[in-house]
Design goal:
The chain contains six helices and seven strands; from the N terminus they run αββαββαβαββαα. By secondary structure, the chain is of the alpha/beta class. The strands form two sheets. It has a four-stranded mixed sheet with strand order 1-7-6-5.
């Protein structure tokens, strides 16, 4: 199965120069948990991704004003992307390896043309693959060492 068959096409995007309040409204109005972030120069080139958690755990938690705080410095720029002609299996492996819940699908000009999310995986009815992917994504990413007890 190719990603173009499964992806959510034409996702709503925000710009690196948008405020946190603008992004929060886009997330709410489109009922999504993340938005691709594109360059402000009109090229549509993907710069990163921002999630509702990014807004909450950085901007809100730091007490910054969401009406004036520009999201550019809070955008996750370590992106894992795929092309629409890639297989769903290859995308799932990337999600597992990088422990990410969403992958942006980009064209040759690095413009976001789709998103593959956990929900998209669930709609494929490939239950065994979905369970494996969710388990890998959800693994703790750091080992926490507890102090020795006396």
């Amino acid at each position: 199965m190719k990603l173009r068959e499964v992806m959510t096409p034409d996702p709503v995007c925000c710009r690196v120069t948008d405020t946190a309040a603008t992004v929060a409204r886009l997330l709410r109005d489109n009922d999504v948990g993340a938005l691709p972030v594109v360059a402000s120069d009109g090229s549509g080139r993907v710069e990163g991704i921002i999630t509702d958690r990014d807004l909450c755990c950085t901007i809100v938690a730091q007490g910054l004003d969401p009406n004036t705080t520009v999201i550019g410095t809070f955008v996750s720029r370590r992106l894992v992307t795929c092309r629409p002609e890639q297989s769903l299996d290859s995308c799932e492996k990337l999600m597992q390896t990088h422990q990410i819940r969403r992958v942006l699908i980009v064209n040759q000009e690095n413009r976001c043309i789709g998103v593959i999310s956990q929900a998209d995986l669930a709609r494929t009815n490939r239950t065994e693959n979905l369970h494996r992917t969710l388990a890998e994504i959800s693994k703790p990413s750091q080992t926490i060492e507890l102090p020795a007890t006396a």
